[in-house]
Amino acid sequence: MPTDDVTEQQARDLLARAAATITLIEPAALTLTGLPEPRRRRVRGLLGVAAAVALIAGAAVVVERLVDEPSPAVTGEPVERPHTYPADQVPSYLGFDRDAAVADLESRGLRAKVVEEPDGCQPSGVVWGSMPPAGAVVEPGDTVVVRVYAAQQVIDCDSPGFLGWSMVRFARGLDEAPEFADSVTLTTPGGASRKVAGSALRDRRSPLWVVCDAGECHSAIAALEELVTTPFTSGGHPVSPYVRLDALSQLCRKKSSSDLALTVEVNTDGVGICPRKAVWLTFDGDGHISGLELSIPVEDPPAEAVEPPKPTEPRRESAEQFVAWARGTGGAPDFADSVRNLGPGFVGDPNTEPESREYWSGCSGLGFPDCGIDPIASLLHDPSEIVALAGRLQCPWSEEPNPDPIAGEPIGLPARFLTPGAEADAVRLQPVGAAGCAEGTLINLWIHPDGEIYAVALVLPVTPPAP
Fold first, then answer.
1. Percent of the chain, pLDDT > 90?
2. Distance between CA atoms of 317 and 315, rounded to whole angstroms?
3. 3-state SS class at 444
4. How many CA atoms lie within 13 A of 411 on its CB side?
5. 95 falls in which pLDDT band (50, 70, 90)?
6. Any idea where the domains of the chain sit in the sequence?
7. Given Cys at both, which of 34, 51, 243, 296 links 189, Cβ 3.0 to 4.6 Å?
8. What are phi and psi of 226, to 5 degrees?
């Protein structure tokens, strides 16, 4: 490559790639993300700097082509940032080794109790959650339960859990990079992409992770770091999220059979909710990561504030009585002789004994443990103030058909509940101040004009914290 043909940007790219291969005279300290930053030592890698300068000055020599095609210039820092917790809050330990999590808790004056969960499809000794969850306020001397995976013998395991946690640990600076293909395509939510040599991405802080489009820069690895350090809430209370690497629900419309989405989301026990943010992984024929695409759902612009629609008085009274009954503070509302118990995207059997609370359970009476499809248990577990509003709450996963688990045919909300008359009967239950389909218990009721409830649909559950 003649020197005259090297542009300034190509030289900068070469410098960045060279920096990723520099061997420092002293080892650099490992920085754990999401925790208070330790004091950094200034390390002078004289040999490495000299090598980098020589690489730019000697651009006339033949160098290995690390990028398959011209890449857009890196013009800024990614918008994604790791969350830093105040000293009085439990930080996120997702991906930590058990000993590292325990040591950090003890350094904060907290007690640590380790609880192991045998799972042969996940890496042993890795922290997958805590109680209280990340973001919860604690005082010195409080006990924090650290949940870790433990070894378990399994015959066969198709779970990609090992790769998912490998990515999490890499994003947090806790482990080496996973196996990347020779060429990796990085794509932003807006569709801009660049191809980079996989070897150049083994440094999670490499500027080559950053792709800019229309003045906004993103980094898939920085987004993952942000996800695993961000506190999650449900109903205004901290909850433990779950790390998932899978094809997600069909409602998320995966692009190909080789795409897996790495997400950090509040557990919904099988309810097909698309993640707020995900890093999609594509693989080559050898199983190496050949593409990473950051997806961020497009949010509608904020609407003008309007007065929430109110149901008629008989419907409102019946809906509020339903909430009180579910929480054990009132008697049963006026139920029809047979009430349809509908779930997200599927049709439930008619409930012929609606006054009996256990007949609402999808899998275990009153939801102990709760499988996430019990509307009564969801209201019982959710401490939020619930309001009754007119109209049916429509979320993507509650509207589009899901495959019937037996017949395999798509089924959805029965047509009788979509008629103008049924739409007028619809009343939704949601936390006060909740917007859209974000968080907290969401339930649709169908109530006759006289206040008789004839159908119930759980749209979004709240499940109890794990013991």
1. 33
2. 6
3. strand
4. 14
5. very high
6. 3-57, 98-295, 313-460
7. 296
8. -65, -40
